[in-house]
Amino acid sequence: MSENFNRSGATRVNIMREVEGSLRRLQTDYIDLYQVHGWDSNTPLEETLRTLDDLVRQGKVRYIGLSNLMSWQAATAVMLQEHLGLEKYVTAQMYYSLVGRSLEYEFQSFAEYHNIGILVWSPLAGGFLSGKYRPHQPCACRHTLRRSGQFRALRKGDGLSRRGRAEGSGRTA
After folding, report:
1. Distance between CA 74 and CA 135 in Å, rounded?
2. Are 125 and 152 in contact (CB under 8 A)?
3. d(CA 89, CA 35)
4. Roughly what angle, to the nearest 10 degrees, separates helices 45-57 and 12-26?
5. Residues 130-152: pLDDT tens digits?
6. How many of the other CB atoms lie within 10 Å of CB of 156?
7. What is the spatial distance between Cα 96 and Cα 24, in angstroms, rounded to a whole number?
8. Residues 94 and 108 sit within 8 Å (Cβ to Cβ)
9. Cβ–Cβ < 8 Å for 154, 131
10. Sheet holding 61-67, edge to edge
11. Terminus-to-terminus CA distance in the chain, angstroms?
12. How far apart are CA 15 and CA 1, in angstroms?
């Protein structure tokens, strides 16, 4: 989506324009899974959900999902989908790794209860768990991971294999 405020967000016109553009670029008749990434506080939730429902009913999208919502936001959307008889989310793309396990505290049980599959992103925490970084080296990972507060100064040996420490490379084999 664009930096232009009028061309971004989960409004009906923006979603429809982006789906049509994707279908044209992909040279296909439908999208298997269309996920809404993030909460849009500037667009009425009902507008977004009705648009997603229309896309499924038109056959342009087979399934819909959400990404990076807090539990209360996802619960609000699912309750509205149920209340209005709209197509329901079938997936949730969420951050999850050994250093970022907050998904387990609320969202996992929510998704299980509502039969929503979880697709994890960044299971290696932007390379943090791969041994990519040396002890006390600042995280050069994407800003979204760095801002999430999951990365703190490494203690001796954290995230590094013995071989990586012995070679001084900071990388694992």
Report:
1. 37
2. no
3. 9
4. 30
5. 777 776 666 665 545 555 454 55
6. 8
7. 33
8. no
9. no
10. 31-37, 61-67, 89-95, 117-121
11. 38
12. 10
